[in-house]
Design a protein that fits this description.
Length: 375
């Protein structure tokens, strides 16, 4: 799976774009108050985006029959755009699979919104952001790199045993820590993704008691928890965040549940992080789980961290000169098709239209993530 974030025409994440350590890459889309995506639409005015001939498209009013729209966007735009670029990669190199594609995305994606505090640089030298993953997808660079792959090592996964923690969050101990050491002999290849299986039980399920009329009741729910993971080489990154400060009706409904729904007593989930790509898995890994409720609320069903386990995917890729033979074949219209190794036309124009630059920019350090609502 490749998790895709959405970019607005202002060069920042779209207001609905979800964030997290599992985000891998970013693609352009719509955002409130910004330009959206121009694309073909379902034919005729009675279906698709342009339903009313009298309601002209804001930028494509001169296009007849409503077959094109300039108001496309959302996740329905960003993820399929990346899917299309993956198809270009397969055309350039039929051996492309999801692991090879991820290696190519790490190598070729462009940094956007370089001043955002979410960017970090891990000890392998890769810039990563929970808002953008490894950056904005670059079709030309991705497709070219696909032709230059010499080899991709088999996937090797290092799995920890289930580590029993058995500790409860209390007023004096709102943060709990566990560690696991990967032997040097078990991880010879660089890291790809890291998965963390977490189990925290004994959480509050009675919202009436939890809220206590003013939100200062007893116990904690899963949304009160957040976690950070630190690699052996010192890269510390947030595995997942609490949602205590999300605002708005929709966000509060997500937190407390729709009428009739109740929080679960146990958080049992596998979280994925891409922040350590390229680092060594060998050494001691540390995970911190924090309960963010007010200390006065850490009474009763505050949560017991039962256990945790890790899985470290490792592998490497080698590049050389273009190895995929390029050929020009006549298309159905009789025009020559460009070689697969030729860069698609128009990338620079697109970047200019969105106020972006093709030049890579240096990221220096990072900072705390600014909270935002979800859609």
């Amino acid at each position: 799976m490749i998790t895709v974030a959405a970019l607005g025409s202002d060069g920042r994440f779209a207001d609905y774009s979800s964030y997290g350590a599992n985000v891998f890459v970013t693609a352009p889309s719509s955002s409130t108050g910004m330009f959206a995506i121009a694309t073909t639409d379902r034919s005729t005015f009675d279906r698709g985006y342009n339903l009313d001939p009298e309601d002209a498209d804001p930028f494509l009013a001169d296009v007849a029959d409503g077959d094109v729209t300039s108001t496309f966007g959302g996740t329905s735009s960003a993820a399929p755009l990346v899917s299309g670029i993956m198809a270009l990669g397969v055309e350039a190199n039929p051996a492309l699979d999801v692991r090879m594609a991820k290696h190519l995305l790490v190598r070729t994606s462009r940094i956007v919104d370089a001043g955002a505090p979410s960017w970090i640089v891990n000890t392998a030298g890769h810039a990563f952001s929970e808002d953008y993953g490894f950056g904005l997808v670059d079709a030309a660079a991705f497709t070219q790199a696909a032709t230059e792959v010499v080899s991709l090592s088999p996937l090797a996964t290092v799995a920890s045993p289930v580590i029993q923690v058995g500790s409860r969050f209390t007023r004096s101990q709102p943060t709990l820590t566990a560690t696991y050491t990967v032997p040097d002999t078990a991880a010879s290849a660089p890291l790809e993704s890291v998965r963390v299986r977490l189990n925290v039980g004994n959480l509050q399920t009675n919202l009436r008691v939890y809220r206590n009329g003013s939100g200062s009741g007893r116990g904690a729910i899963s949304g009160d928890l957040e976690a950070f993971v630190t690699s052996p080489s010192g890269t510390r990154h947030q595995l997942f965040s609490d949602d205590r400060f999300l605002v708005g009706t929709d966000s509060q409904r997500d937190r407390y549940g729709v009428p009739g729904a109740r929080p679960r007593a146990t958080l049992a989930w596998t979280f994925t992080s891409n922040a350590y790509w390229g680092e060594s898995a060998a050494g001691t890994w540390t995970i911190e789980v924090m309960n963010k409720v007010a200390p006065s609320q850490l009474v009763g069903r505050t949560g017991t961290w039962r256990n945790v386990s890790f899985e470290f995917d490792t592998g490497s890729i080698e590049f050389g000169a273009a190895r995929v033979a390029a050929s020009i074949e006549p298309s159905r219209e009789g025009r020559a098709r460009e070689p697969a190794s030729t860069a698609p036309v128009g990338v620079s124009s697109w970047l200019a239209a969105y106020g972006l630059t093709a030049d890579s920019r240096t990221i220096e350090g990072g900072g705390p993530r600014a909270r935002r609502g979800r859609a």
